[in-house]
Amino acid sequence: MGYLNTVKNSKGFSKTNTELFAVGIFEDLKLGSVGKEVDNYVDGQITAAINNSDIKGKKGETTLFYGKEKRIVVVGLGEKKKFDEQIIRLSGATVVRTAISKKLKSVGMEIFGGKDDAYFNQALGEGIILGSYQFTKHQTQNKDLFEVKSATVLGGNVAAIKKGVAIGTSVCFARDMENDPGNVTTPTKLASLAKEIAKEGDMKITVFDRKKIVEKGMGGLAGVASGTGEPPRFILLEYKGGKAGEKPIGLVGKGLTFDSGGISIKPSAGMDEMKFDMCGGGTVLGVMKAIAQLKPKVNVVAAVPSTENLLGDNAYKPGDILTAYNGKTIEVLNTDAEGRLILADALAYVSKHHKPQYMLDFATLTGAVVIALGHIAAGVMGTDDKLMKRVMDSSQKTGERVWEFPLWDEYCEQIKSKIADIKNIGEARQAGTIAAGAFLKEFVGEGIPWIHFDIAGVAYNQKESPLNYQRGASGMIIRLVLDMIVG
Ligand code: BES
Ligand code: ZN
Ligand code: ZN
């Protein structure tokens, strides 16, 4: 299926019948109790490797040994005092990647570093699943493809590992819909995936088609969708795990299933990557998929406006003026700045009908954020310092980097239009990421704390790593949001 969806548990090394088994080692080169047992199993070869300096315990180092029935891999964990969740997550992934490269069907491992802390166990569960992810479903002829069939952890906190598995599989679920191309992941497909999530998590789902989108006055989404024959969708999920009167958390994600730029067409080189322009929607659906399984005691409402941005004979044009759901008029000066137009309606809709306690939105919104932060961090900005602090804390904890941009009034001035309320672009080649944030702010209801995540740089094309083996969709930011919502 492209990734593992469970992690088994076993009671001891001798009871773990896997083709590969992993133990960790810090730079102090001391073997733990499982390590000693495993060293015996390979007739002291690990000790010999340590004594010959073939094992140094460096972060990410792997050394392979051959026992009678199974192979052993010793994974370096780095300096003991620097050991953290991210290292255990990476180690779990490294073991699975080693098994894939050696074509070994089953892997077993100890809890690296011997930490019984719940969050470390969760991180290991996440790492195992994320490391197992491959996007190979469209390859019918490649005989080298290989998937790991099972993973087992020795001991540990079973509930915490399970939570990590739910989070990891939700990220992989999002990666799959994001890696799938525009002719597979259509707005209709996103709506049907959302329906599956709703069923699994006992959520209410509402889907508007083109006619309803127009009727409701979602002029931004309708405007962008006018250039494509592919049916657009406005998708709304409502999860009620909290108290009846409690305000929900609002999540909004850009579900642009292919962005050609529209009449302001993009250059053709690399345009295929614009299949990833629905990764904001993927983030939201990934989070809701995990919520469906973890059932936290909160209320959440999630909206994904979804369409293609193409150039049909009915397409919206530069100069057009659109009216968004909150009545504000928008002068379109570039049809390639379409993400903010579809998000405008969604932010206004969720603000008006659900009065969220706070709102987060996610979008591959600007090329400018890639210039500013590369593929390392997502750009964030918003209206509430306390909420921003929570974002920063969860970023720290999950290892998913974000960096704050200022949403000062001077920037907000730049999107004022001379003939409508606002225009959809700021000053040419100036702070494009902030201009987009300033635009979105106009559609967030009065007094609702809000943070915008520009994920154009991190949603795909990151450096390959054990957690993210290919330069496709990363699913990054899902774990951060889940940390904020579920803990
Ligand atoms: N989907 C793009 C942003 C994007 C660029 C995502 C690169 C991923 C990688 C967005 O719709 C867009 O085209 N934005 C324009 C805005 C501009 C016209 C003001 C951009 O960034 O160039
Ligand atoms: Zn665009
Ligand atoms: Zn776009």
Characterization of the model:
This protein has 487 residues and is α/β, with parallel strands linked by helices. 36% of the residues lie in helices and 18% in strands. The chain has 15 helices and 18 strands. The structure holds ligand BES and zinc ion (ZN) (2 copies). One zinc ion is lined by residues 259, 261, 336, 338.
Helical content (DSSP H or I, runs of 4+): 25-40%
Helix count from the secondary structure assignment: 15
Secondary-structure-based class equals alpha/beta
* N-end to C-end Cα span: 28 Å
Poorly predicted ranges (pLDDT <50, ≥5 residues)?
none
**Main β-sheet: number of strands, strand sense, barrel status?**
9 strands, mixed
In one word, what is the shape? elongated
Provide the CATH superfamily of the largest domain.
Zn peptidases
Strand content: 15-25%
CATH architecture of the largest domain: 3-Layer(aba) Sandwich
**pLDDT averaged residue by residue:** 97
CATH class of the largest domain: Alpha Beta
Based on CA atoms alone, the radius of gyration comes out at: 24 Å
**What is the total number of structural domains?**
2
Counting copies of identical and different chains, the oligomeric state is: single chain
| Overall strand count | 18
CATH topology of the largest domain: Aminopeptidase
The kinds of small molecule bound in this structure are: ligand BES, zinc ion
